[in-house]
Structures are given as structure tokens and as C-alpha cells.
């Protein structure tokens, strides 16, 4: 004895005759409902596949953009390192040039040199005078 569709409502949520859709639809109606459900399922599947493809395409585009940015950043970093190395070489050249320059004598050293020149020139003059007296 099937009690699920009985009129006494023992297994139904409401008393009285059964009101479930499957009990009210004819086989033709059920087939149409199943076709509509199948179409909705296929449509949902197609939409999900399209969304998945879009997500994959977006992910691939994002990866490509990230790679492009990474390569640009790497190029900039290489340029910065080349500039740094160039500047280090220039600093070394300038330092070598500065170290090769003799220091500027201070004022006392200059005056001493002037005094020495005066002494030499006076000595030469004295030497010439003494040569005149000796001849």
C-alpha cells in the first residue's frame, strides 16, 4: 500500500489530497518541464564555462602584464646598476687626479721660497761684483 500519495495526508505536510507538482502534472507536462530544466542546466553550464574561460583569459593577461612589469623593472634596475658602476669609476678617476696634484704650499712656505730666490739673486749679484773686483 502506497501511503505517500494517499488522500488521508499522513505523509504530506498538509491534510487532504496530495498537492505535489509531480502528482498534478501529466507525463507530457513533466517532459516539457524536464526539457526546460535541462535547457536551464545547459545554459548554466555554458555560462559557467564562459566565466571560467574569461577568468583563465584574465589570469593569463594578468600573468603577461606582471611579466612585462617585471622585465621593465629588471631593465631599470640594470640601468641603475650600470649608472652606479659608471659613477664609481668616475669617482675613482677624480680621486686619483686629486691625489696626483701636489699640495699647495702654505704662506710661510711661499715666503721661504721668495726669500731663497732673493738670497740666490743677491748671491749672484755679489758673485758678479766679486768677479769684477778680482779681474
Topology:
Elements lengths: L20 H4 L2 H74 L6 H28 L1
Which residue ranges are poorly predicted, with pLDDT under 50 across at least 5 consecutive positions? 1-14
Query: How many individual β-strands?
Result: 0
The general outline is rod-shaped
Mean pLDDT: 78
**How many separate structural domains?**
2
Helix percent reads over 70%
- By DSSP (H or I, 4+ residues per run), the number of helices equals 3
Estimated share of beta-strand residues:
under 5%
Give the N-to-C terminal Cα separation: 167 Å
* Biggest pleated-sheet summary: none
Q: Helix- and strand-based class? A: mainly alpha
Q: Element order, helices and strands?
A: HHH
Instruction: Please give the radius of gyration in angstroms.
Output: 54 Å
Region (Disordered): 1-33
Give structural notes:
With 135 residues, the chain is mostly helical. It folds into two domains: 25-101; 107-135. 79% of the residues lie in helices and 0% in strands. The chain has three helices and no strands. The protein has helices at residues 21-24, 27-100, 107-134. The protein is rod-shaped. The relative contact order is 0.03. Residues 1-14 have low confidence and may be disordered. Residues 1-33 are annotated as: Disordered.
Amino acid at each position: 500500500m502506497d501511503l505517500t500519495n494517499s488522500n488521508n495526508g499522513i505523509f504530506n505536510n498538509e491534510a487532504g489530497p496530495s498537492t505535489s507538482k509531480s502528482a498534478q502534472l501529466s507525463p507530457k507536462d513533466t517532459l516539457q518541464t524536464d526539457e526546460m530544466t535541462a535547457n536551464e542546466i545547459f545554459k548554466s553550464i555554458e555560462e559557467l564555462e564562459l566565466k571560467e574561460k574569461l577568468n583563465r583569459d584574465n589570469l593569463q593577461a594578468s600573468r603577461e602584464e606582471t611579466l612585462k612589469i617585471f622585465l621593465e623593472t629588471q631593465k631599470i634596475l640594470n640601468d641603475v646598476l650600470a649608472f652606479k658602476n659608471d659613477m664609481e669609476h668616475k669617482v675613482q678617476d677624480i680621486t686619483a687626479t686629486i691625489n696626483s696634484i701636489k699640495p699647495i704650499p702654505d704662506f710661510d712656505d711661499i715666503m721661504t721660497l721668495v726669500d731663497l730666490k732673493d738670497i740666490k739673486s743677491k748671491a749672484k749679484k755679489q758673485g758678479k761684483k766679486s768677479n769684477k773686483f778680482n779681474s
